[in-house]
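Q: I have 319 residues here and want to know how they pack in 3D. Can you give me a structure?
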Amino acid sequence: MGVSDDVEVLAAGARAALVREIEESGVWEADFTWRDVFARVPRHLFVPYYFVGVPGGYERLWGGHPDPERRGRWLRGAYADQPLATRLRDGELVSSSSQPSLMARMLVELDVREGNRVLEIGAGTGYNAALLADRLGDDLVTTVDLDPEITESARAHLAAAGYRPAVVTGDGVRGCPERGPYDRIVVTCALRSVPAGWLGQCRPGARVLAPVSTGLLALTVRDAGFAEGRFLETSAYFVALRGGARARVGEAALRVRDDSLRFFLTLTAGVLEPDEARAVWEQEGRPGRERFGVTVRRAGQWAWLDDPAGPYAWALPDA
C-alpha cells in the first residue's frame, strides 16, 4: 500500500469518528442530511497543511512530511473537532478552517432547501463550499474572498475533492450580485454589522446567517430595504472580514469572563461605555445572545434587546 493509499484509509476512519462525535452533540437532529454530507467530504484535502501553536510561535504540520509520525499528527488534527490556522501573514492569522461542529450547526441553521442558491462570504480553505456543493450541486454555490491567494488555494482544494462551485475573488462587502439572486447567504468571517447591499442580492424570504460581535445572527430578508432577525444562543469567534467594519473587542470585553457580557460589550462598543453596558445587562437579568436581535434598513441598522420596538436599541456602524 502506498503513502497516498494509507492516508485515504486512515482518513476514512478519522472522518467517520468525527461524524460520530458531531452526531452525539445532537446538532443534526433538525436536518440529518448534513450527516451524510460530512461523511462524504474529505476535510484533509482542504487542509494539506496548517499551523499549531507552540511556545514562541507556530509549528507547521503538512500531509507530505516524510516522517510517518508527523503525517499521522497532521491527519489526526485535520479530523479533530477544532479550528485550524491555515494562513498566517506577519504572524497574524488571516485564514482558518472553522471547527467542524460549528460549521455543522451553521449549515443546519442556514435551513437550505433543494434548489436554493447560496452565497458564502469568506472562502477559507473551500471546505464549507464543498459541503454546500455536495448538498446542493456546484452550480448553486458561490464563495467569495478578497484575497486571491485564498481563492486560488480554495479552488485547487475543491477540484482535488471533486467539487467545482463558483470561486470568486472580490470584496465580500460587495457580495457577488452577478451570481444572484440568492436564497441563502452564509458568512464565515466576523462582522461588526451586515452590509445592507447584500439584501438587494437576495430573494424575498432569504436567510442570512452571519457572525456578528461574537454571536451568530440569523436574518430574514423581506426585500432590498429591510431584514430582521435574532442571534442564536451559540457563540461564534471568527477571523474578521477584511474590507468591512471590524468587531471592536475592547479591553473591557477582553477582561470579562462571562461570555454573554463579553458579547454585549462587543455589540455595543463605541455606543455604550463599558460600565453603562454592564449596568444595562445586570438590570435586564443578564440576557444571553438569544435575547438580542438586529434590524437592517437602507438608512442604517441597529441592535435591540427583546423587541425591535422596545426601549433598548443601539446603532451599529455601516459595514
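Q: Anything worth noting?
A: DSSP finds nine helices and 14 strands in the chain. The chain has a mean pLDDT of 91.
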